[in-house]
Amino acid sequence: MAGAKDAVTLLGPISIVVVSFITVIGLIFGTPSSDPPTNGLSGDCVSANPGADDGQGPMNGIHPVAATALRRVGITGGMITQGLGHYGKSSGTHGHIPGSPYGAAADIKVGGMSEATIKQTVHNLRMQGFVTWYREPGWDGPGTGNAHIHAAFAGLPPPNNDGRNIAAGQIQTFLNSESRRRNGLADGSGRNPSNFPLDTFPTTEELASVRSVYQGGSGCVGTQTGTSSLESRELPVSSGKSCTEMSLSSGAFGPVTAEQNEYYITMRWNYAIWYEHPSERDSFGKPKTKTRNVDNQAMAWHRHKKILVTNPKNGRQIVTSVEDSGPAIWTGRISGLSTKGIQALGFRHGDCGMVLNYVWADQNAALGPVR
């Protein structure tokens, strides 16, 4: 032990000299740039308000609002290899927004980033409302550039977000063309289709976030998966038509709180057999929906349970509370939702017939839109 201590003592002055030398070199030449913050695992998000302006102005000719969103995920001007129309060959995607001194697209260098950081950066940008692709060298054309992330902002304020936006075509491609979501190029798979080393195909939550920002909503639209079985109990169905229900103060399971009223769901739950009476009619003159063989214990179990509802067309999700039963069988619908719930999924009050997906939610999740 004494020998080890003596060795450390002898190395002490040398270590100080080495550290001091490295410190001086760092002061003269600067330290290597680090990866931008990754903000945790996929699904986390920096800000649900990507349309905010931090007041720091444009970045490399990029619109101030888009520049703010870039800074929010750790992208600095020094990381942008191409902003507003730096090269004539890219003027189609990096040019001015007509009537504006700014552009909306940026190429971001990835040199020094790990693959995990590249993927996380792509994810973070998409959650902020950027249509974003990772591209390998040469994928933009023969002999073009280095590997980079191409990002175009979908959330510019009017009038910069209309069809004149130079990036509008890219936004539509990202949202509507599954074959071109991989990198945004016409062939959908890069210049070398057999060699795609880094898969950044957009997730459901990323597409939903970009679409939400493009439509003037918030970013950070998350997703949950839910479960088809909860404590060995199944939902009546996993998919089917819904409609707007009236406001509730009390439902089939008792009193309803204001929060539960905002985001509640009805179904013909699996605590009874549901049938149409052959002669009785309801207030609409239709066969009355009734129950038999009611399991009171199962009925009590359903009270205030949480259901995850997904609109498969736009990826939006809400967590709802079981507060009532229905609708009538003759409607052809298998669920009813509160007005606020319907609107959060992208529909209007009174809309009916939309097909939604249903699973049990995390029972600790907050009611309302999933973020």
Tell me about this structure:
It is a single chain. The chain is of the alpha+beta class and 371 residues long. It folds into 2 domains: 64-214, no CATH class; 229-369, Beta Barrel (Barwin-like endoglucanases), CATH 2.40.40.10. Helices cover 25% and strands 22% of the residues. It is built from 9 helices and 17 strands. The chain has helices spanning 2-29, 64-72, 91-94, 115-127, 168-176, 204-214, 258-262, 296-302, 339-344; strands spanning 80-82, 105-109, 130-135, 148-153, 229-230, 233-234, 239-243, 250-251, 254-255, 264-267, 273-281, 287-292, 306-310, 317-325, 335-337, 352-360, 368-369. The strands form 5 sheets. Strands 7, 10, 13, 14, 15, 16 and 17 form a 7-stranded mixed beta sheet that branches. Strand 13 and strand 14 (317-325) form a beta hairpin. The radius of gyration is 27 Å and the shape is elongated. The termini are far apart.
Short description:
With 371 residues, the chain is an alpha+beta fold. Helix content is 25%, strand content 22%.
Write the topology of this structure.
Elements: H1 2-29, H2 64-72, E1 80-82, H3 91-94, E2 105-109, H4 115-127, E3 130-135, E4 148-153, H5 168-176, H6 204-214, E5 229-230, E6 233-234, E7 239-243, E8 250-251, E9 254-255, H7 258-262, E10 264-267, E11 273-281, E12 287-292, H8 296-302, E13 306-310, E14 317-325, E15 335-337, H9 339-344, E16 352-360, E17 368-369
Parallel strand pairs: 10-14
Antiparallel strand pairs: 1-2, 2-4, 3-4, 5-6, 7-16, 8-9, 10-15, 11-12, 13-14, 13-16, 14-17
